[in-house]
Amino acid sequence: MTPDTPADTFSFTLSATDGAARTGYVSTPRGRIRTPAFMPVGTVATVKGLYFDQVRAAGADIVLGNTYHLMLRPGAERVAKLGGLHTFMRWDGPILTDSGGFQVMSLSSLRKMSEQGVTFRSHVDGAYHEMSPERSVEIQGLLGADIQMQLDECVRLPCTDEEAERAMRLSLRWAERSKRAFETQPKGRAIFGIVQGGAVPALRVESARALADMDFPGYSIGGLAVGEPQEVMLAMIETVAPHLPTNKPRYLMGVGTPDDLLESVARGIDMFDCVMPTRSGRHALAFTRFGRINLKNARHAEDPRPLDEESDCPALRDYSRAYLHHLVRCEEMLGAMLISWANIHYYQQLMAGARAAIAAGRYADYVAQTKEGWARGDL
Ligand SMILES: Nc1nc2cc3nc(NCCc4ccc(CCO)cc4)[nH]c3cc2c(=O)[nH]1
Protein backbone atom coordinates (compact mmCIF):
# COMPACT_ATOMS: atom_id res chain seq x y z
CA MET A 1 0.00 0.00 0.00
CA THR A 2 1.55 3.31 -1.05
CA PRO A 3 1.93 5.94 1.75
CA ASP A 4 -1.03 8.17 0.98
CA THR A 5 -4.34 9.05 2.60
CA PRO A 6 -6.80 6.22 1.85
CA ALA A 7 -9.71 7.25 -0.34
CA ASP A 8 -13.26 6.84 0.95
CA THR A 9 -14.33 5.78 -2.51
CA PHE A 10 -13.17 3.32 -5.15
CA SER A 11 -11.50 4.77 -8.24
CA PHE A 12 -8.93 3.99 -10.92
CA THR A 13 -6.26 6.44 -12.10
CA LEU A 14 -4.29 5.82 -15.29
CA SER A 15 -0.79 7.37 -14.96
CA ALA A 16 0.85 6.32 -18.24
CA THR A 17 0.46 4.02 -21.21
CA ASP A 18 3.00 2.42 -23.54
CA GLY A 19 1.21 0.87 -26.50
CA ALA A 20 -1.65 -1.11 -24.97
CA ALA A 21 0.24 -1.49 -21.68
CA ARG A 22 -1.00 0.74 -18.81
CA THR A 23 0.26 1.77 -15.40
CA GLY A 24 -1.67 3.56 -12.65
CA TYR A 25 -3.38 2.78 -9.37
CA VAL A 26 -6.69 1.70 -7.91
CA SER A 27 -7.74 3.75 -4.87
CA THR A 28 -9.76 2.05 -2.14
CA PRO A 29 -10.65 2.98 1.48
CA ARG A 30 -7.94 0.55 2.59
CA GLY A 31 -5.20 1.96 0.38
CA ARG A 32 -3.90 2.11 -3.16
CA ILE A 33 -3.13 -0.78 -5.50
CA ARG A 34 -0.32 0.01 -7.93
CA THR A 35 -1.02 -1.43 -11.38
CA PRO A 36 -0.06 -3.62 -13.13
CA ALA A 37 -0.54 -5.57 -9.88
CA PHE A 38 -0.02 -9.21 -8.92
CA MET A 39 -2.40 -10.26 -6.12
CA PRO A 40 -1.13 -13.15 -3.95
CA VAL A 41 -3.81 -15.77 -3.39
CA GLY A 42 -4.91 -16.24 0.22
CA THR A 43 -7.66 -18.79 -0.43
CA VAL A 44 -8.49 -19.83 3.16
CA ALA A 45 -7.35 -16.58 4.78
CA THR A 46 -3.66 -17.26 4.40
CA VAL A 47 -1.09 -16.85 1.63
CA LYS A 48 0.20 -20.37 2.16
CA GLY A 49 3.54 -20.42 3.99
CA LEU A 50 3.99 -16.68 4.43
CA TYR A 51 3.29 -14.17 7.21
CA PHE A 52 1.37 -11.17 5.91
CA ASP A 53 4.27 -8.86 6.84
CA GLN A 54 6.39 -10.81 4.33
CA VAL A 55 3.58 -10.41 1.74
CA ARG A 56 3.55 -6.67 2.39
CA ALA A 57 7.35 -6.37 2.37
CA ALA A 58 7.46 -8.23 -0.95
CA GLY A 59 5.46 -5.34 -2.40
CA ALA A 60 1.91 -6.70 -2.52
CA ASP A 61 -0.78 -4.02 -2.10
CA ILE A 62 -3.75 -6.44 -2.16
CA VAL A 63 -4.44 -10.13 -1.52
CA LEU A 64 -7.20 -12.54 -2.54
CA GLY A 65 -9.66 -14.40 -0.37
CA ASN A 66 -12.12 -16.96 -1.61
CA THR A 67 -15.87 -17.07 -1.06
CA TYR A 68 -16.23 -20.81 -1.77
CA HIS A 69 -13.59 -21.95 0.72
CA LEU A 70 -14.45 -19.41 3.44
CA MET A 71 -18.21 -20.05 3.31
CA LEU A 72 -17.48 -23.73 3.99
CA ARG A 73 -14.82 -23.13 6.61
CA PRO A 74 -14.98 -21.18 8.96
CA GLY A 75 -18.26 -19.78 7.51
CA ALA A 76 -18.99 -16.23 6.35
CA GLU A 77 -21.20 -15.36 9.33
CA ARG A 78 -18.47 -16.57 11.70
CA VAL A 79 -15.82 -14.40 9.97
CA ALA A 80 -18.21 -11.43 10.22
CA LYS A 81 -18.79 -12.14 13.93
CA LEU A 82 -15.00 -12.09 14.38
CA GLY A 83 -14.71 -8.66 12.76
CA GLY A 84 -14.37 -9.57 9.10
CA LEU A 85 -11.54 -11.02 7.01
CA HIS A 86 -9.09 -8.09 7.48
CA THR A 87 -9.26 -8.45 11.27
CA PHE A 88 -9.41 -12.25 11.16
CA MET A 89 -6.20 -12.66 9.16
CA ARG A 90 -4.57 -9.36 10.21
CA TRP A 91 -4.14 -7.82 6.76
CA ASP A 92 -5.11 -4.12 6.67
CA GLY A 93 -4.75 -3.59 2.93
CA PRO A 94 -7.40 -4.18 0.26
CA ILE A 95 -8.81 -7.68 -0.19
CA LEU A 96 -10.39 -9.02 -3.39
CA THR A 97 -12.66 -12.06 -3.20
CA ASP A 98 -13.73 -14.34 -6.00
CA SER A 99 -17.46 -15.14 -6.09
CA GLY A 100 -17.16 -18.89 -5.72
CA GLY A 101 -18.66 -20.11 -9.00
CA PHE A 102 -15.36 -21.19 -10.48
CA GLN A 103 -14.37 -23.08 -7.32
CA VAL A 104 -17.77 -24.80 -7.07
CA MET A 105 -17.27 -26.12 -10.60
CA SER A 106 -13.66 -27.16 -9.98
CA LEU A 107 -13.80 -28.45 -6.40
CA SER A 108 -17.24 -29.55 -5.30
CA SER A 109 -19.22 -32.66 -6.17
CA LEU A 110 -22.89 -33.18 -6.94
CA ARG A 111 -23.52 -29.68 -8.14
CA LYS A 112 -26.63 -28.53 -9.94
CA MET A 113 -26.72 -25.36 -12.01
CA SER A 114 -29.97 -23.46 -12.60
CA GLU A 115 -31.09 -19.94 -13.46
CA GLN A 116 -31.40 -19.30 -9.74
CA GLY A 117 -27.83 -20.31 -8.90
CA VAL A 118 -25.85 -23.45 -8.11
CA THR A 119 -26.40 -26.03 -5.39
CA PHE A 120 -23.45 -28.21 -4.44
CA ARG A 121 -21.99 -30.47 -1.82
CA SER A 122 -19.04 -29.25 0.21
CA HIS A 123 -15.71 -30.95 -0.60
CA VAL A 124 -14.97 -30.54 3.13
CA ASP A 125 -17.88 -32.37 4.79
CA GLY A 126 -20.37 -33.17 2.03
CA ALA A 127 -22.99 -30.73 3.36
CA TYR A 128 -25.35 -29.17 0.80
CA HIS A 129 -24.96 -25.49 -0.02
CA GLU A 130 -26.72 -23.06 -2.32
CA MET A 131 -24.96 -20.23 -4.11
CA SER A 132 -26.92 -17.57 -5.95
CA PRO A 133 -25.68 -14.18 -7.23
CA GLU A 134 -27.36 -12.58 -4.21
CA ARG A 135 -25.93 -15.07 -1.67
CA SER A 136 -22.42 -14.74 -3.16
CA VAL A 137 -22.53 -10.94 -2.79
CA GLU A 138 -23.91 -11.34 0.75
CA ILE A 139 -21.00 -13.64 1.66
CA GLN A 140 -18.40 -11.32 0.13
CA GLY A 141 -19.99 -8.48 2.11
CA LEU A 142 -19.85 -10.50 5.35
CA LEU A 143 -16.15 -11.16 4.67
CA GLY A 144 -15.71 -7.41 4.16
CA ALA A 145 -14.07 -7.66 0.73
CA ASP A 146 -13.07 -4.35 -0.83
CA ILE A 147 -13.34 -5.72 -4.39
CA GLN A 148 -15.99 -8.36 -5.05
CA MET A 149 -16.82 -10.52 -8.06
CA GLN A 150 -20.17 -11.19 -9.66
CA LEU A 151 -21.27 -14.84 -9.64
CA ASP A 152 -20.60 -16.28 -13.09
CA GLU A 153 -20.29 -19.58 -14.92
CA CYS A 154 -16.86 -20.40 -16.28
CA VAL A 155 -16.80 -23.14 -18.94
CA ARG A 156 -13.76 -25.35 -19.34
CA LEU A 157 -11.98 -25.12 -22.69
CA PRO A 158 -12.33 -26.62 -25.24
CA CYS A 159 -16.15 -26.41 -25.30
CA THR A 160 -18.84 -26.06 -27.97
CA ASP A 161 -19.89 -22.60 -29.12
CA GLU A 162 -23.39 -23.35 -27.83
CA GLU A 163 -22.02 -24.20 -24.38
CA ALA A 164 -19.92 -21.01 -24.34
CA GLU A 165 -22.93 -18.93 -25.43
CA ARG A 166 -25.26 -20.44 -22.82
CA ALA A 167 -22.79 -19.83 -19.98
CA MET A 168 -21.97 -16.31 -21.22
CA ARG A 169 -25.62 -15.27 -21.33
CA LEU A 170 -26.33 -16.81 -17.90
CA SER A 171 -23.33 -14.89 -16.57
CA LEU A 172 -24.73 -11.64 -18.00
CA ARG A 173 -28.07 -12.20 -16.27
CA TRP A 174 -26.17 -12.98 -13.05
CA ALA A 175 -24.10 -9.81 -13.55
CA GLU A 176 -27.31 -7.73 -13.35
CA ARG A 177 -28.49 -9.57 -10.24
CA SER A 178 -25.06 -9.36 -8.56
CA LYS A 179 -24.77 -5.63 -9.21
CA ARG A 180 -28.27 -5.01 -7.87
CA ALA A 181 -27.59 -7.07 -4.73
CA PHE A 182 -24.31 -5.18 -4.25
CA GLU A 183 -26.09 -1.80 -3.95
CA THR A 184 -26.73 -2.37 -0.22
CA GLN A 185 -22.98 -2.57 0.54
CA PRO A 186 -20.97 0.22 2.22
CA LYS A 187 -19.50 3.00 0.03
CA GLY A 188 -15.95 2.47 -1.19
CA ARG A 189 -16.35 -1.18 -2.08
CA ALA A 190 -16.48 -2.32 -5.71
CA ILE A 191 -17.95 -5.20 -7.65
CA PHE A 192 -16.45 -6.34 -10.97
CA GLY A 193 -18.34 -7.78 -13.93
CA ILE A 194 -16.71 -10.87 -15.45
CA VAL A 195 -16.36 -11.25 -19.22
CA GLN A 196 -17.09 -14.77 -20.46
CA GLY A 197 -17.55 -16.25 -23.93
CA GLY A 198 -15.08 -19.14 -24.14
CA ALA A 199 -12.73 -18.86 -27.12
CA VAL A 200 -15.42 -17.37 -29.42
CA PRO A 201 -14.51 -13.76 -30.32
CA ALA A 202 -18.10 -12.70 -31.12
CA LEU A 203 -19.31 -13.98 -27.73
CA ARG A 204 -16.42 -12.29 -25.95
CA VAL A 205 -17.21 -8.94 -27.61
CA GLU A 206 -20.94 -9.25 -26.81
CA SER A 207 -20.14 -10.06 -23.16
CA ALA A 208 -17.67 -7.17 -22.79
CA ARG A 209 -20.02 -4.64 -24.39
CA ALA A 210 -23.02 -5.74 -22.33
CA LEU A 211 -21.00 -5.49 -19.10
CA ALA A 212 -19.59 -2.09 -20.13
CA ASP A 213 -23.18 -0.88 -20.59
CA MET A 214 -23.90 -1.96 -16.99
CA ASP A 215 -21.17 0.46 -15.86
CA PHE A 216 -19.24 -1.70 -13.39
CA PRO A 217 -16.37 -0.06 -11.45
CA GLY A 218 -14.02 -2.71 -12.82
CA TYR A 219 -13.95 -5.69 -15.18
CA SER A 220 -12.54 -9.20 -14.89
CA ILE A 221 -11.73 -11.40 -17.85
CA GLY A 222 -12.84 -14.88 -16.85
CA GLY A 223 -13.07 -18.19 -18.62
CA LEU A 224 -9.33 -18.26 -19.31
CA ALA A 225 -6.38 -20.08 -17.74
CA VAL A 226 -8.60 -23.14 -17.92
CA GLY A 227 -6.33 -25.31 -20.03
CA GLU A 228 -6.17 -23.33 -23.28
CA PRO A 229 -2.83 -22.61 -24.99
CA GLN A 230 -1.26 -19.23 -24.18
CA GLU A 231 -1.90 -17.94 -27.70
CA VAL A 232 -5.65 -18.55 -27.30
CA MET A 233 -5.62 -16.71 -23.97
CA LEU A 234 -3.70 -13.78 -25.47
CA ALA A 235 -6.00 -13.67 -28.51
CA MET A 236 -9.04 -13.43 -26.23
CA ILE A 237 -7.44 -10.55 -24.28
CA GLU A 238 -6.77 -8.73 -27.58
CA THR A 239 -10.40 -9.35 -28.57
CA VAL A 240 -11.90 -8.12 -25.31
CA ALA A 241 -9.68 -5.20 -24.21
CA PRO A 242 -10.80 -2.69 -26.90
CA HIS A 243 -14.41 -3.13 -25.73
CA LEU A 244 -13.72 -2.41 -22.07
CA PRO A 245 -13.62 1.19 -20.81
CA THR A 246 -10.02 2.47 -20.61
CA ASN A 247 -10.72 4.27 -17.31
CA LYS A 248 -11.66 1.11 -15.38
CA PRO A 249 -9.28 -1.63 -14.15
CA ARG A 250 -9.04 -4.95 -16.01
CA TYR A 251 -8.36 -8.10 -13.98
CA LEU A 252 -7.31 -11.34 -15.71
CA MET A 253 -8.42 -14.15 -13.39
CA GLY A 254 -6.13 -17.02 -12.44
CA VAL A 255 -3.12 -15.91 -14.47
CA GLY A 256 -0.35 -16.98 -14.52
CA THR A 257 3.29 -17.67 -15.25
CA PRO A 258 5.76 -14.73 -15.38
CA ASP A 259 5.60 -14.93 -19.18
CA ASP A 260 1.77 -14.84 -19.10
CA LEU A 261 1.91 -11.71 -16.93
CA LEU A 262 4.33 -9.79 -19.19
CA GLU A 263 2.43 -10.70 -22.37
CA SER A 264 -0.96 -9.86 -20.80
CA VAL A 265 0.27 -6.49 -19.47
CA ALA A 266 1.39 -5.71 -23.03
CA ARG A 267 -2.24 -6.27 -24.12
CA GLY A 268 -3.83 -4.01 -21.50
CA ILE A 269 -4.32 -6.07 -18.32
CA ASP A 270 -3.95 -4.26 -14.95
CA MET A 271 -4.48 -6.98 -12.28
CA PHE A 272 -3.61 -10.66 -11.89
CA ASP A 273 -3.93 -13.46 -9.37
CA CYS A 274 -2.52 -16.96 -9.46
CA VAL A 275 -1.63 -19.77 -7.06
CA MET A 276 1.46 -20.45 -9.21
CA PRO A 277 4.10 -18.75 -6.97
CA THR A 278 2.95 -20.41 -3.75
CA ARG A 279 1.85 -23.75 -5.20
CA SER A 280 5.16 -23.99 -7.11
CA GLY A 281 6.99 -23.04 -3.90
CA ARG A 282 5.50 -26.14 -2.27
CA HIS A 283 6.81 -28.19 -5.19
CA ALA A 284 10.41 -26.88 -4.98
CA LEU A 285 10.09 -24.72 -8.11
CA ALA A 286 11.66 -21.25 -7.82
CA PHE A 287 10.99 -18.42 -10.27
CA THR A 288 14.02 -16.14 -10.64
CA ARG A 289 15.59 -13.57 -12.96
CA PHE A 290 17.46 -16.52 -14.49
CA GLY A 291 14.34 -18.54 -15.19
CA ARG A 292 12.90 -21.48 -13.27
CA ILE A 293 15.09 -23.44 -10.86
CA ASN A 294 13.89 -26.84 -9.65
CA LEU A 295 15.48 -27.28 -6.26
CA LYS A 296 14.73 -31.00 -6.20
CA ASN A 297 17.50 -31.39 -8.77
CA ALA A 298 20.69 -32.95 -7.36
CA ARG A 299 22.84 -30.43 -9.25
CA HIS A 300 22.09 -27.99 -6.41
CA ALA A 301 23.32 -30.32 -3.65
CA GLU A 302 26.63 -28.48 -3.14
CA ASP A 303 25.89 -25.11 -4.68
CA PRO A 304 26.71 -22.45 -2.06
CA ARG A 305 25.16 -19.62 -4.08
CA PRO A 306 21.76 -18.14 -3.15
CA LEU A 307 18.99 -18.04 -5.72
CA ASP A 308 19.75 -14.37 -6.46
CA GLU A 309 22.46 -12.55 -4.48
CA GLU A 310 21.33 -9.16 -5.84
CA SER A 311 17.78 -9.50 -4.52
CA ASP A 312 16.60 -7.59 -1.45
CA CYS A 313 14.48 -10.57 -0.42
CA PRO A 314 16.18 -12.73 2.26
CA ALA A 315 14.71 -15.92 0.75
CA LEU A 316 16.36 -15.13 -2.61
CA ARG A 317 19.59 -13.59 -1.22
CA ASP A 318 20.56 -15.30 2.04
CA TYR A 319 20.03 -19.06 1.66
CA SER A 320 22.24 -21.33 -0.41
CA ARG A 321 20.75 -23.52 -3.08
CA ALA A 322 22.39 -26.44 -1.30
CA TYR A 323 20.41 -25.62 1.85
CA LEU A 324 17.13 -25.20 -0.06
CA HIS A 325 17.81 -28.49 -1.88
CA HIS A 326 18.47 -30.19 1.48
CA LEU A 327 15.21 -28.86 2.97
CA VAL A 328 13.29 -30.01 -0.10
CA ARG A 329 14.86 -33.46 -0.01
CA CYS A 330 13.99 -33.78 3.69
CA GLU A 331 10.47 -32.46 2.95
CA GLU A 332 11.00 -29.83 5.64
CA MET A 333 8.26 -27.14 5.77
CA LEU A 334 10.89 -24.39 5.77
CA GLY A 335 11.78 -25.39 2.21
CA ALA A 336 8.25 -24.69 0.97
CA MET A 337 8.11 -21.50 3.05
CA LEU A 338 11.39 -20.05 1.73
CA ILE A 339 10.70 -20.91 -1.93
CA SER A 340 7.12 -19.58 -1.71
CA TRP A 341 8.49 -16.37 -0.18
CA ALA A 342 11.09 -16.10 -2.95
CA ASN A 343 8.41 -16.63 -5.61
CA ILE A 344 5.96 -14.09 -4.19
CA HIS A 345 8.80 -11.57 -4.06
CA TYR A 346 9.85 -12.40 -7.62
CA TYR A 347 6.31 -11.87 -8.93
CA GLN A 348 6.05 -8.54 -7.09
CA GLN A 349 9.34 -7.23 -8.44
CA LEU A 350 8.37 -8.41 -11.94
CA MET A 351 5.28 -6.16 -11.73
CA ALA A 352 7.24 -3.29 -10.13
CA GLY A 353 9.65 -3.40 -13.06
CA ALA A 354 6.72 -3.43 -15.50
CA ARG A 355 5.16 -0.35 -13.84
CA ALA A 356 8.46 1.57 -14.08
CA ALA A 357 9.09 0.47 -17.67
CA ILE A 358 5.60 1.53 -18.84
CA ALA A 359 5.99 4.91 -17.11
CA ALA A 360 9.33 5.35 -18.95
CA GLY A 361 7.91 4.22 -22.31
CA ARG A 362 10.30 1.27 -22.53
CA TYR A 363 8.00 -1.70 -21.81
CA ALA A 364 8.98 -3.63 -24.97
CA ASP A 365 12.65 -3.45 -23.93
CA TYR A 366 11.77 -4.53 -20.40
CA VAL A 367 10.00 -7.62 -21.72
CA ALA A 368 12.87 -8.48 -24.07
CA GLN A 369 15.53 -8.02 -21.36
CA THR A 370 13.53 -10.03 -18.81
CA LYS A 371 13.09 -12.91 -21.25
CA GLU A 372 16.81 -12.81 -22.13
CA GLY A 373 17.54 -13.26 -18.42
CA TRP A 374 15.27 -16.31 -18.29
CA ALA A 375 16.87 -17.76 -21.44
CA ARG A 376 20.42 -17.05 -20.24
CA GLY A 377 19.53 -19.26 -17.37
CA ASP A 378 21.58 -19.73 -14.36
CA LEU A 379 25.20 -19.31 -15.41
N1 LIG B 1 -15.29 -16.21 -10.90
C1 LIG B 1 -14.35 -16.70 -11.72
N2 LIG B 1 -13.15 -17.07 -11.22
C2 LIG B 1 -12.20 -17.62 -12.06
C3 LIG B 1 -10.98 -18.07 -11.52
C4 LIG B 1 -10.04 -18.64 -12.38
N3 LIG B 1 -8.82 -19.22 -12.11
C5 LIG B 1 -8.39 -19.64 -13.33
N4 LIG B 1 -7.27 -20.31 -13.54
C6 LIG B 1 -6.41 -20.73 -12.46
C7 LIG B 1 -5.74 -21.93 -13.06
C8 LIG B 1 -4.55 -22.35 -12.33
C9 LIG B 1 -4.66 -23.39 -11.42
C10 LIG B 1 -3.51 -23.86 -10.78
C11 LIG B 1 -2.26 -23.28 -11.06
C12 LIG B 1 -1.03 -23.77 -10.39
C13 LIG B 1 -0.41 -24.89 -11.25
O1 LIG B 1 0.72 -25.40 -10.59
C14 LIG B 1 -2.17 -22.23 -11.98
C15 LIG B 1 -3.32 -21.76 -12.62
N5 LIG B 1 -9.24 -19.32 -14.33
C16 LIG B 1 -10.29 -18.72 -13.77
C17 LIG B 1 -11.49 -18.25 -14.31
C18 LIG B 1 -12.45 -17.72 -13.45
C19 LIG B 1 -13.74 -17.27 -13.95
O2 LIG B 1 -14.04 -17.36 -15.16
N6 LIG B 1 -14.63 -16.79 -13.06
Shape: globular
The low-confidence parts are none
Ions and ligands: ligand 6OK
Structural class: alpha/beta
Share of residues in helices? 40-55%
Largest sheet: 6 strands, parallel
Q: What's the average pLDDT?
A: 96
H/I helix tally: 15
Number of E-type strands:
16
Distance between the termini: 35 Å
Widest sheet: strand ordering = 4-14-13-12-11-10
Beta-strand content: 15-25%
Blueprint of the fold:
Layout: E1 11-18, E2 21-28, E3 31-35, E4 37-40, H1 52-58, E5 63-66, H2 67-72, H3 76-81, H4 85-89, E6 95-98, H5 101-107, E7 109-113, E8 118-121, E9 128-131, H6 133-143, E10 147-149, H7 161-182, E11 190-195, H8 201-213, E12 218-221, H9 230-240, E13 250-252, H10 258-265, E14 271-274, H11 276-281, E15 285-288, E16 291-294, H12 314-317, H13 321-329, H14 333-359, H15 363-376
Parallel strand pairs: 4-14, 5-6, 10-11, 11-12, 12-13, 13-14
Antiparallel strand pairs: 1-2, 2-3, 7-8, 8-9, 15-16
Ligand 6OK binds at residues 98-99, 101-102, 149, 152, 154, 194, 222-223, 225-226, 253-254, 274-276, 279-280.
